[in-house]
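note to self: dont lose this again. the chain is below, predicted strucutre after it. 94 aa total, dont forget to put it in the shared folder this time
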Amino acid sequence: MAKNRSELVAEVAEKSGLTQKQVSDVLDGVFESFTEAVSAGDKLTIPGWLSVERTERAARKGRNPQTGAEIEIPAGYSVKLSAGSKLKAAASNK
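---
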């Protein structure tokens, strides 16, 4: 079952003893840091948990699914998230 942001904020607030507003502000700060790092092309790593980095995608040819016409897809950027050892262990219930 998926959790949305408000459920996550409520759970962290309960476990940490902080208010939901404080937890929400911290999450905003974390995501702002992720955004700044990715937009600058830097890799952000939280050892054991995850790493986030910007990757480059080369220009390539594609097809319009409606017409079948070949189109040129321009080069661009994407974001790569990698799970750390603690997150991988939690996923495999170790």
